[in-house]
Amino acid sequence: MEKQEEFRNYLFPRDGDRLAPARGLDPLTFAKACEDHPMAGSMIKGWAKLREQPFHGLTCDGHVEGGLYHLGDEGAPTPEMVRAANALLQALSPADRAQLSYPIDAKEWRRWSNPEFLINPNGLRMEDCTPEVRTAILRVMEASMSAAGYTKARGCMKTNAFLGELCDLPLIMNEWSYNFLLFGEPSPDKPWGWNFYGHHLCLNCFVLGSQVVISPTFMGAEPNVIDTGPDKGLRLFDTEESVGLALMQSLSAQQQERATTYKTMEPSGMPEGRYHVGDQRHLGGAFQDNRIVPYEGVPVSEFDPRQKQQVMDIVEAFVGYLPSGPLAAKLTQVEKHLDRTWWSWIGGHGDEDPFYYRIQGPVLMTEFDHHSGVWLNNTQPAKCHIHTVVRTPNGNDYGRDLLRQHYEAVHPGHAPGHE
Predict the structure, then answer these.
(1) Which pTM was predicted?
(2) What's the pLDDT tens digit per position in 80-133?
(3) Alpha-carbon separation of residue 373 from 246, 272, 378, 385 (angstroms)
(4) What is the DSSP track for 405-417?
(5) Contact (CB, 8 A) for 199 and 118
(6) CB within 10 Å: which end of the chain, N or C, has fewer?
C-alpha cells in the first residue's frame, strides 16, 4: 500500500470556516477581504511602511560594504533573453505592452510579494493573459534561468495550483496566479530586467550585458509534494532540506550548540520581533530590502574542508537557478568570502525535526524554513510547508550596485531611482 503523504493529515474541511468564506472570490476581492482582516491587515500595513523606505540594501550592521560587486563578462545567455523578451512584446497589444513596461529604475521592482492575496497588482496578471502571452512570458523566464531553475519555478506554480485544488479555491491559487513586469528595454548591452511574483514564487532578474542578478528570490510550497494527477511525484526542496540537515549533523556537539540560535521553532522561545506572523522565521522576504540581519551562529572559517564544501553545495542548491556562466561567477564570489560567512540554525537537528537555517555572508544570504500551515491546518512547523529565500546583501539586490556602477561609467551624475 502506498504511503500517505504527510500533508494529507492537515487538510481543512472544504465546508469549514477556514475555506468556505473564500470560495468564489476573485483575487482582488479576496485581497480586499485580507486588508480588512485584523491580522492580515496589520501585516499589510507594516509591509507598506517598509516598501516606501529608500533602498540601500540588506546588511549585517546597517552599513553597506562597498567594493564587493564588479562589472564584467559572466557569460549570461543575454541574446536568448533579449529574443524571448522581444517576442513577448510583439505578442502583446499596445495596451498590455504599456501595462507590462516600466523604466529600469521604477519603484515597482520592490512591490513584489509572496502571499496568495494580491496586494500590489502591477504589470500583467498571467491568469488574465491569452495562452500565447503566457507562453511568451514563460519563455523569457526559461531563457533567463538554468534548466533546473526553470523546472523548479514551474514546480512552484504547479504546486500552487495543486493547493488550489485541495482547498477548492482555484480562483485564488492556480498555475497562473502571478504577475509579470518588464523593466527597461531588452538590450544586449544596456540594463533591463523583469520580475515575476505571486504565491510561493517571486523572482527578480536584472540584466546588464553578460551579467545577470536574480535576487531577491522567494520559492516555496505548501504542500511540497504533488501526490495525484498529471504532476504526481513532483517534490520540491528535497535537496535544500537534506544538504542543510547533513551539514548540521556533521558538526561537533559544541558547534551545533553555538550554531543553534533558538532551540525551538515557536515564537514563545524567541525575543519580540524575531518571529513574523507571515514570514515566521525567515528574515529576507518581501519588503525586507533594508533589513539589518546580524551574523549569528558559527563562522564557516571554523569548518573543515569537507564541511566548507557542504556549505558550497547548499549555496549551489539555492542559486542553481542561475545560467551556467553567472552561476559559476556567483559561486566564485561566495567562495572568495567563505571565511566571512556564517551558519545559523533554529530547531532540532534530528532526522524528523522541522528546522530553519541560514547561510549569510557579504555577498549572499540564503534561508530555509519549515512553516506551520496557512492553507493546511498544522499549527506547528511541518516538513510539508517550505519557504526559501535568496538575497544579495550590501546593495546588489535587483542588481542595484551594478546599475549604479553602470550609471557612473556611462551617465555620470545620474543615480538610479528604484524608490
Answers:
(1) 0.96
(2) 999 999 999 999 999 999 999 999 999 999 999 999 988 889 999 999 999 999
(3) 25, 21, 5, 7
(4) HHHHHHSTT----
(5) no
(6) N
